[in-house]
Design a protein that fits this description.
Blueprint (H helix, E strand, L loop, with lengths): L6 E3 L5 E3 L2 H9 L5 H14 L6 H15 L1 H6 L2 H6 L6 H13 L3 E9 L4 E9 L3 E8 L10 H18 L8 E8 L5 H10 L2 E3 L9 H8 L12 H9 L13 H8 L3 H14 L1
Parallel strand pairs: 5-6, 6-7
Antiparallel strand pairs: 1-2, 3-4, 4-5
Length: about 280
């Protein structure tokens, strides 16, 4: 893993030295073997040129990884697949609800909850045996947009109003938690505020244990947008039938999937085959 001196261009326009070890780690995290990851890295390094964008380098890695290890290649596009759940944030809310359902919670999406002062619409409510989490989901269409301290303060104040109303009701052994969930990163000030106030925050690469990508990997909650044949029209048809995860199709035959969603049978068969690959 060489090429330690070549400079590449980040999304911000700034240049940085290409870090081959960072790319190697990201390839291993998809489930690729050591041999496979090193082979992809060798192919990418042959094609990198000074000033090449990180996005183009990522695309090269994904292309080569799919040739060597198709399931890992699909998982390598996880971050972009979450962006593709948009353009609205509603599929992302369903996606988050699905993750927590797989973790043993009962979930509801888009609920009206009375606070002490006003009524709030809560994006996702996840209820466990001893805990209920009120989540505000902030979906961004690209990684340049981070959730800042203003968003964290807004989410926290809404939950505090709800919490005051809940405390007036008998809830033996039930802990109530407010949470900010986003598909991109949090600013340092947002993290500082959340840690100071006790607001739960789940984002890309945060927290160290229990970040969004870790929750996805641990539950196998891969979004349908990871599947190569899932076009925007197909995604819309699937999500309208509450099929947000690849595993949601596992128990359906191709014929049943076609009948339920209106997707052509041939495409449904391809979706099923790709689901088998990724799961």
């Amino acid at each position: 893993m060489g090429m330690s001196k070549i400079k590449i261009r980040k999304k911000t326009g700034q240049e940085e030295v290409f870090d081959s070890s960072k790319m190697y780690d990201s390839l291993i995290n998809t489930g690729a073997s050591d041999e496979g990851a090193r082979e992809v890295l060798r192919m990418v390094e042959r094609e990198i040129r000074p000033g090449m964008s990180t996005r183009k380098i990522y695309r090269l890695a994904k292309k080569h990884l799919r040739q060597i290890d198709r399931p890992s290649g699909m998982r390598y596009s996880l971050k972009d697949s979450i962006y593709a759940l948009g353009p609205s944030g509603y599929p992302f809310e369903k996606f988050i609800a699905s993750i927590f359902r797989l973790r043993g919670y009962t979930t509801k999406v888009g609920q009206q909850v009375k606070g002490r002062c006003v009524t709030h619409e809560v994006d996702v409510i996840a209820t466990g045996s001893e805990e209920q989490i009120m989540m505000e989901c902030k979906f961004h269409r690209n990684g340049e947009k981070h959730s800042d301290v203003k968003i964290a303060m807004y989410v926290d104040s809404r939950f505090r109003d709800i919490e005051k109303a809940l405390k007036k009701q008998p809830h033996p052994q039930m802990k109530f938690t407010g949470a900010l969930v986003t598909n991109t990163r949090l600013t340092s000030e947002a993290i500082k505020y959340a840690e100071c106030t006790g607001l739960r925050a789940i984002a890309w690469k945060y927290p160290r244990n229990g970040s969004l990508e870790q929750l996805i990997e641990s539950t196998g909650a891969y979004p349908i947008t990871m599947l190569p044949c899932a076009t925007r029209a197909i995604v819309d048809k699937l999500t309208s039938r509450s099929i947000v995860l690849a595993r949601d199709m596992k128990s359906l035959s191709a014929a049943a999937l076609s009948r339920r969603t209106g997707i052509e049978l041939k495409i449904a068969e391809r979706l099923k085959a790709q689901c088998s690959d990724i799961l």
